Each structure stands twice: as C-alpha cells, then as structure tokens.
C-alpha cells in the first residue's frame, strides 16, 4: 500500500515538472481546485513522499527480516529468544573469560543460530 502511494506521488511529481501545461489544464477542470497554484500540489506531493519514504524503507526492512527468518526456518519468537539468549551468553562469556572460567570454551562449541546485525532487528 505504501509502495503504491509512494510510486503514485513520484509519478505525479514527474508529471507536474514534465507536463506543466497539461497538469494546469487538469486542475482547471476541477471546480474547487481552480484557485490553487501548482506549488501547492508540489508541496503536498513532496510532503507525502517525505512521510511515506521512510515508512516504505521500514516495511522493506521488515520483509527482508522475515525472508531471512523463513530461510532459517525460524519463527519471529524463536529468533527473538535465540538472539536474547546469545546476547546473554556473550555477556556471561566476557565475565567468565575475565575470571578465567572453562565454561566459555564449552559454550563456544554449541551450535549457534545465524542472526542479523542489530540495526536489522
């Protein structure tokens, strides 16, 4: 939905700049918009692109995350719990390494699930 809105706004912006006279004629055909300048529509479309652009990027990031999860055969819950467990284990390993414990080497041998960078979660 956001992609459709974004692409429509971009199309209309390009249309305004490439076919300015045709755009003005279309606006004149609509009764209550006759007195509005072309700059009003440009500002409106730029605002909509400015709002919907970041939302589109967030949606795209969410799609990428779920494609990754599907490739790993994980649910979102399993991924979150595994990621949390791995972060806790890393903190514990850092503490044990400082104290010279051998449990850190044993945990290093266990299977770990691939995770995405923090900015992709």
Automatic annotation (TrEMBL):
Alphabetically ordered keywords of this record: Membrane, Transmembrane, Transmembrane helix
Region (Disordered): 90-121
Listed transmembrane segments: 44-69
Superkingdom assignment: Eukaryota
Biased composition (Basic and acidic residues): 92-109
Protein name, as recorded: Uncharacterized protein
Organism whose genome encodes this protein: Spumella elongata
Taxonomic lineage of the native organism: Eukaryota, Sar, Stramenopiles, Ochrophyta, Chrysophyceae
